[in-house]
Amino acid sequence: MLCYQNAGVVLFFIAGIGVVIGEISISTKEVLVQTNDVTKISVTVRNASTLGVQISLNAQHEDIVSVLPTTLFLQPFNETYELVVRGRTAGHSEVSAISNDTSIVLSDIYLITNVCNSYVVDILSKIAGWIYIISWGSSFYPQIYSNYKRKSVVGLNFDYVGFNLIGYVSFGIFISGLYFVPYLQQEYFALYPRGLIPVKTNDVVYNFHGTFAVLLTIFQCCIYERARQTVSNIAKVLMGILALFYIVCGILIATGALKWLSFLYYCSYLKLIITLLKYIPQAYMNYKRKSTSGWSIGLVLLDLTGGLLSVVQMILDAYNYNDWLSIFGNPTKFGLGLFNIFIHSFFITQHYVLYRERPLEPAPKTWV
């Protein structure tokens, strides 16, 4: 049984081969193998013109994966070679290539394998991933529809909306830079020569969609009844600090003191900070008004579903690849998922327990 996914990637690149190898191709560039299972890859070499050349394949972690044969004896002209990849224990392993001909550079020819404990768990992880992406992507619309139906944005905190926009724009800079700009991709590969660009097409689509939805919500805030609501002074100060951050980074980039790639990562860190910050004004306003009227519970439920399943997916992947460091070694993402669950559970408590069926109170001007 074979299973393929984006997480398991096989990459072969050619560099410095000269006249020995004219072209090399493989049957697939993506592979995932279960423990105690095998998958086969066909490697075709065309226009080889030198006899006696050998390419040896060395697994970084032989307890995780093995590749047979371990040595390819290149034949003149065209030849197809079959590699058998066997999963031994769950994890990730790189297979590097060296040649007995020192004039051949094979530093860019390598194989990355992901070995999972179970194909079933892998499928469950994919399902969880799709559901949480759909949940987060659709979470904007209950609030947008509620605003439209009431022709009012009273009860929706403007600080939350403003921080949300800054968060999506900041993360959009990170995503768009790495996805669309070749120069920044070169910077990334210079830093991580055997890495993969950590941005996919779905990331780009998700962020553009989220930015559009937030802008639509801001448009509603401009045209619908909003009573005394406005952006708080504290939020204005924080937004001013964020604007100053971008100005300082622009100056540092212009003077060569800051690399573009570093700036992109600063933008992604800023998105994490804003995610922790943006819900606090809304929760406080609900408390001051003793009401959740105007704050869509549909948004909360969909966001909570997304947060829960994102954490579930992380746990499933950690088990399936024996990679618990992906959680405990990088607590930021896991911590954000737990915070998402906590804050939306708090909103649910406000809506269904603390302020259930309370009449709508005038919205305060600020959250402090």
TrEMBL record:
Entry's localization field: Lysosome membrane
TM regions (residue ranges): 7-26, 127-148, 160-184, 204-225, 237-257, 263-280, 292-316, 336-355
Keywords carried by this UniProt record: Lysosome, Membrane, Repeat, Symport, Transmembrane, Transmembrane helix, Transport
GO terms of molecular function: L-cystine transmembrane transporter activity; symporter activity
SMART domains per the UniProt record, alphabetical: CTNS
Membrane topology value: Multi-pass membrane protein
Reaction equations catalysed: L-cystine(out) + H(+)(out) = L-cystine(in) + H(+)(in)
Pfam families: PQ-loop
Major localization listed first in the record, in broad terms: membrane
GO cellular component: lysosomal membrane
Family: Belongs to the cystinosin family.
Protein name: Cystinosin
Origin species: Photinus pyralis (Common eastern firefly)
